[in-house]
Amino acid sequence: MKFTLTEEQEMLRKTARDFLADKCSKKFVKQMEESEAGHSVELWREMAQLGWMGLVFPTKYGGGDMSFLDLAVLLEEMGRACLPGPFFSQVVLAGLPVLDIASEEQKQKYLPELIHGEKIFTLALSEPGYPNYGASTITTRATLHDGNYIVSGTKLFVPDAHIADYMLCVAGTKPRGGITIFLVDAKGPGINCTLLKTIAGDKLCEVVFDQALAPKANILGRLNQGRSAIQKIIERAAVGKCCEMVGNIQRVLEMTVDYAKERKQFGQPIGSFQVIQHYCADMATDVDAARFSTYRAAWMLSGGLPCTKEVAIAKAWIGQASQRVFALAHQIHGAIGVTIEHDLHYYTRRAKAADLAFGDADFHREIVAKEMGL
Amino acid sequence: MDFSFTDEQNRFRQEVRDFLEEEIKKEYWQPACDAWVQGFDTGFTKRVAQRGWIGLTWPKEYGGQQRSHIDRLILTEEMLRYGAPAALHWFGDRQVGGAILSFGSEELKKEFLPRIARGEAYFGLGMSEPGAGSDLASLQTKAIEDGDYYVINGQKTWASCASFAQYFDVYARTDPEAPKHRGISEFIVDAQSVGLSRIPMIDITGTEAWNDVFFDNVRVHKKYLVGEKNRGFYQVLHQLDYERSGMERLMGNYPLFEGVIRFAKDNKLSREASVRSKLAQLQIEFEVGRLLIYRVALVMEEGRAPNWESAMSKAYSTEFEKHLASVAMEILGPYGQLKSGSKLVPLRGMAAHSYLGSKGYSLQAGTTEILKNILAVRRLGLPSS
After folding, report:
1. Cis peptide preceding B255, ω within 30 of 0
2. pLDDT (tens digit, 9 = 90+) per residue, B142-177?
3. pLDDT (tens digit, 9 = 90+) per residue, B243-265?
């Protein structure tokens, strides 16, 4: 048992932190939020050159052959920096599923361009209605027509679809229950993408498939057998979001404590008042607890261990813990924290978006209940 | 990072479980809440000692096994899971033995550590006083030198396990002129000493939970001074870090946790969304707390004394225990109020016991407020208030 990172992971963390401190200022984040693309081609290229997109992929596809746990460290730093752009979609939502389930031929074709950042990939999974995660609620249909599949239906909250080259699209392929994952050309005919306006300024889309083409050769994994792959995709995405959130709330704790040391009222730093100290102590406890439960899930996922319960625990915990952290961070920062002149709002908005992504605390508590045999 | 146990650790856990299950099968005792501090069983303590499980981490020369702190956490975790009556040796094993090991003379180590490890010396604590709780440094009990002896006068309170204690770890003022933190010393006092008397105190559950302990000209030989004279306050802070460090803060009521989950399943209550949500939330909080406590053991394993780490795990865990008791009461409804021995009582009255008893968990061994002060100053570097 060991709760600390390896030397290599610490180096990766430092490299990432330094790079992002340099390239991902809040001014840049703001620009990206305000731009339609939400994505800087220049930064994307640099990240590809650093090997970030390929970090967890085998060397034979051009990757760095590192583990999901290493990626977790990188995701934490990205959360800390509020990094905009499609990295999460590319690697966590699309790349790793391709590695999991695609044929060797498909991997040879798609992974190198994914790893080099030449093409942008994302995942079209969730749909209108509540709750919107899980294979059972999928209404998008793919029907066989002249040897290829024709996809119709609506996907919601698809990240980065507006700039994507390829989408993994999850669709029903039998009248009852059969689910298949297709890799579709995101810019092809019959696909209509509308950018939604979100609190985090990230780029979530509604994607309407209206008789879009999905060649039979682009089925990822087995026809009608996508269900277990989807569960793994959701679990991995949930852990990935947890990692980003750990970086986010860790930074917010540091910002808040710094502020409490500097801000003076009644002739002394507000951090010398016990009520503020206890708020900060509560924040630190939530942050450490979130870190350990997240990294436990990431470690298990990385080692290929079954971790449905541990993932759900991590996501349920951090969903609620982050909201407590932000309630206190804002209370301690006072009015400046609710303006756009201070950086806190970047974190507040992103933490809520991450809480809502891939199942909130209620959703994951129910998974824990099932795992307890309730 | 590695969140797993080694094969050896897993085997050890299994060994402890087998032992405890055998004990229960033989009906030596019944699993109970708070048994780590309220379950007194000389036979059990002796049998645990025979296996070498008291003083597990201590050097072999003093009767220990030189095992890791993770092993000790596994051991205590299983004791708590089964609600085993470990109170007679718990304090000596957890903290007083460690204090003697860290600060005591060679003579004291040789006199006490092997006996604690053999399950033959039971310890109680003499820290709090009527006028010195959170502000422990204000304690007024005095120890005045008289030749080869110290003469102790004063009163200690909230002394857990005190009726059964053979020795007390007592903090007393040895320099009334010095600043209050710098005039306190630590002593081992024989509970049979002339002038020492005890009056039991009954807690809100009806249990004899503590004693008031009175010292009326109690003479203690100088060799029972632990560590340096007037360094007692620094030593007690060190000891408190260990007192707060363990799994008992999270799992003191584990038999209730297990019991209420089983109750909800057996009575089909767990089909209700609100019950599912409450129990799942408890499971989440439990597993998170467990990680915070394993972190503390990992700190000790690095050879550091835990400090804010155990303040964090203890403050967190006692909230979990209060939450557990509240949820158990909600799920049991009106049956929850029934006490052990009553007609119709569910879960042997553990819910009622825990609901009432848990009010004290966030007070003993450092109130949650004191622990948060420690976190704020030591972990976060905020200025002292």
Report:
1. no
2. 999 999 999 999 999 999 989 999 999 999 999 999
3. 999 999 999 999 999 999 999 99
pLDDT tens across A261-295, in order? Answer: 999 999 999 999 999 999 999 999 999 999 999 99
Q: Does the residue B384 lie in any domain? A: no
> What is the per-residue pLDDT across A65-81, written as a single tens digit (0 to 9) for each?
999 999 999 999 999 99
Contact residues on chain A for B5, CB-CB shorter than 8 A = 1
Domains of chain A (ranges, CATH numbers): 7-119 (1.10.540.10), 122-225 (2.40.110.10), 228-371 (1.20.140.10)
Interface of A with B in 317-356 (CB under 8 A): 317
How far lies B196's CA from each of A321, B149, B164, in Å?
A: 49, 15, 14
Pair of tokens at residue A351: 């933490």
Radius of gyration for the alpha carbons in chain A, expressed in angstroms and rounded = 21
ipTM exceeds 0.90, yes or no: yes
Handedness of CA A66, A69, A70, A76 (dihedral sign): positive
Q: How confident is the model at residue A134 (pLDDT cuts 50, 70, 90)?
A: low
Whether residue B116 is found in the same domain as residue B176: no
Which residue on chain B is closest to A259 by alpha carbon? Answer: B382
Asked if residue B369 and residue B265 are part of one domain, the reply reads yes
Whether B86 and B132 map to the same domain: the answer is no
Residues of chain B contacting residue A268, judged by C-beta atoms under 8 Å apart: 383
Q: Is B372 found in the same domain as B301? A: yes
B89/B115 Cα distance (integer angstroms): 10
The closest CB to that of B280, out of A6, A274, A372, belongs to A372
Pairwise CB contact (< 8 Å): B380 & A280: yes
pLDDT at A177: 78
CB contact under 8 A, B283 and A4: no
pTM above 0.90, yes or no: yes
Say yes or no: B89 and B60 in one domain. Answer: yes
Q: Which residue has the tokens 């597990």?
A: B56
Domain holding B207, by residue range, is: 124-230
